[in-house]
Amino acid sequence: MNLNIAVLSGDGIGPEVTAEAQKVLDAVADRFGHTFNYSQALVGAVAIDECNNPLPDETLELCKASQAILFGAIGHPKYDNNPDAKIRPEQGLLKLRKELGLFTNIRPVQAFDALISKSPLKKDIIQGTDLVIYRELTGGIYFGEKTLSEDGTVASDLCEYSKPEIERVAHLAFKAAQHRRKKLTLVDKANVLETSRLWRKVVTAISKQYPDVELDFLFVDNAAMQVILAPSQFDVILTENMFGDIISDECSVIGGSIGLLASASVGSGTALFEPIHGSYPQATGKNIANPLASILSAAMLLEHFNLITEAKTVRDAVNRAISEGVVTVDLNKETNFSTSQVGDVVASFIQKNKEVLNY
Ligand SMILES: NC(=O)c1ccc[n+]([C@@H]2O[C@H](COP(=O)([O-])OP(=O)(O)OC[C@H]3O[C@@H](n4cnc5c(N)ncnc54)[C@H](O)[C@@H]3O)[C@@H](O)[C@H]2O)c1
What we know:
The chain is built from 13 helices and 12 strands.
């Protein structure tokens, strides 16, 4: 297969982890006879520095013309610490999602057997966890109108959802559930929020088209507790934008590090694959960030193009690296490897005719 992939590595550790995902994709291309062509483009704080625009037109055009986007992370402390900044890195990512119609973010969460001891949660709680979060990505409070009174003392953010916005992500979530354990949990706050009541109504109506999928509901405050108390009860979690953002970061504790959680954003335009973590500015340039979330995002990219064996090969290589202790410092404080060493080892497990690196 020939694939044109836009690479938007962004800020902080973004370029470091994305380079490892590319290394692994190259190993896949080599082993399975595919051709992956990469085109780099600016996004986030680096794009503001260069063009005063977190999503330059050329970047957007490249993304539209590509078949997939490999995304790193955006964000820089100079903006995080300046709430008055009008041009901000995250605007680049939000605009990209909106422009490409990427209305669903898919975030799988698993407990890796070899890492169970690394999780701050007890083994019997996390063992067997295998859930996926379907988070609505282009609506809700992150995109609603924002106001700040002239004297700067009153602010508001509008949370708005329409029936079609809920329907399209719900259909994807139900279809995913049909291919999994056939259970879908809608996470909302329907006791308080009108938007959540609309979500319940629309999702309940849609569920009639998926009689083989069991639907249940959970308030987000309870869900925040349940994903930590008993994560293996979940199969597919469907939720709105902000709740999904928070719940999925919380779920990273299950796997042992946020540096393991991958995601795919899909919708009407070019699909985008990115780790769920941010730009982790404290680690920039130190070669210590965990590249596995980015590498597993590349596996999701392969799956998106039905390259199932290739994706499984990447996952198997990641599992092997983890079980052989080839992990970064977030997963092992005593014996650890650098970002690029982990990428090298994972790639060497995949590449044909290449000796597995000594480590
Ligand atoms: N999608 C995105 O690009 C995205 C998402 C979240 C935050 N951000 C931005 O990133 C910047 C930093 O935000 P933050 O500190 O809240 O979140 P973050 O995800 O960058 O880092 C939070 C913590 O998670 C851990 N971590 C994150 N990535 C890791 C990795 N690959 N390996 C090992 N440990 C890792 C570190 O302990 C880090 O201190 C901000 O500017 C924020 O706006 C961007």
